[in-house]
Amino acid sequence: MLIVSGPTGGSEHDGGGHPERPARIAAVMAGIDDLHLGTDLQIVAPYAANLAQMTRVHDTAYLDELAAFCQAGGGQLDPDTYATADSWSAARRAAGAGLAAVDTLRQRDDGVAFVVARPPGHHALRDRAMGFCLLNNIAISAGALTANDERVLIIDWDVHHGNGTQAIFWDDPNVLYVSTHQWPLFPGSGTAQEIGGPRALGRTVNVPLPAGATGDVVRRAIGEVALPAIDDFDPTWVLISAGFDAHRADPLAELVLSSGDFAELARMVAGFAPRPGRLVLFLEGGYDLGALRMSVAATLGALLGDFYQPEDPTCGGPGTEMVHQARAERDEALHRAWSLAPSERRVR
Amino acid sequence: MSPLQTIAVGFDGSFDAEAAVRWAFELARQVDADVVVVHAVGLLEHAADRGVAVELEKTVERLTREAGIDPARVHWHLADGDPCSVLIRAVVAPVAADLLVVGSRGQGAHAGRLLGSTSLELAEHAAVPVVIVPTGREGQ
Q1: How far apart, in whole angstroms, are the C-alpha atoms of residue A227 and residue A339?
Q2: Of all helices (H) and strands (E), which one includes residue B102?
Q3: Does residue B53 have a pLDDT over 70?
Q4: pLDDT tier, B125 (very low <50, low <70, confident <90, very high otherwise)
Q5: In chain A, what residues touch B10 (CB-CB under 8 Å)?
Q6: ipTM score of complex
Q7: Nearest Cβ partner of A185 from B44, B80, B83?
Q8: Cβ(A131)–Cβ(A157) under 8 Å?
Q9: Which residues on B lie below 8 Å from A68 (Cβ)?
């Protein structure tokens, strides 16, 4: 069973010619339609996240100013990021769509949820919008889960490092953040030496990858660098920052994955969920509409046990050495940090 | 205190950033320091052609000539990232700046205190002294 929370953002928060645009939602929904799920599809209407839910991960002063900025008509927040008059309500609904997905899975105790919502969220910091993101949707849901004593694994396979999510949970031992991303690339963070704060050593895992990296390299990054930390963490929920801009057709980056690679990645990370009903995907990037449609269909098809693979997985690209280097740099950073930390804080 | 050797100045092509570069050049001449002009390449600029960076570099060359500073002491540094993070990282190699200089408001900045304020965030997080140059004060 696929639970779609949304869609929301299909007409509002329109920057006019900006690649992060409402048409992305129609492309995603077309990808879902391609699976012909019939009664295996449940649509959940999103609601707007409230202040208490948002302030678990965002500062009140930032939320107040963002709301006021939108109410005044919006504009450019930085060279990449815009807000319009309706962006505040759109962002709150996108955040609420994640919360609704979690609520639904908790009630059903079965299925997989996909949050079809924009604006995306993983660059949004506690006190700042950036990288097309206003509110950190996945962090708001993870914050709701950890408030209920859950242990949340976040896998971020967007081509850009999710600096906002990493920063928000930097020192939170109840969240394990794992990111594979092109490097160097915006936002410039996400080195393997970034391993988490003093209370959460090892709870951040970054594997930077070079331009041209293929799907096999991304899977190797998760398997060789992140897997020990995931096994040690033993998550009760798995949330995915599912950006599809690592696809070779995407105009914003230079990884060369195919839609088939996202299917393989989905199968891999689904295995980290402790049981059915504990896996939620959040739409992040993905700016080529055709690639977005195919990749969504392939990803969800894989999670539902269907074989829908319009493109073969890719292999043979550069990056294996960088994966090995990331493993070594992470081990060294952990070793250095452990030598200064109490033993109970040790995480592989 | 060790002498000032490298000044990093953020540059996004805005009027305020030009003021900051002029101020940094003047200081560098007085204390015999190098200047690294740092430009952060954002999401959209990365996807665009490299014409933006080329134009900005030409502007820096013009500002260098106008300031009468030795061009060999001026360096151009491009880095993917948001302006604040890129400048914070400029304190380590390869830039290794002893001082960061920014304009009071860059591209896209607005009247709000919290949103899009590179200069304020930089002042809060940077590991070296930060100078925020108010527009119109670069020659003082």
Answers
A1: 22
A2: strand B99-103
A3: yes
A4: confident
A5: none
A6: 0.89
A7: B80
A8: no
A9: 112
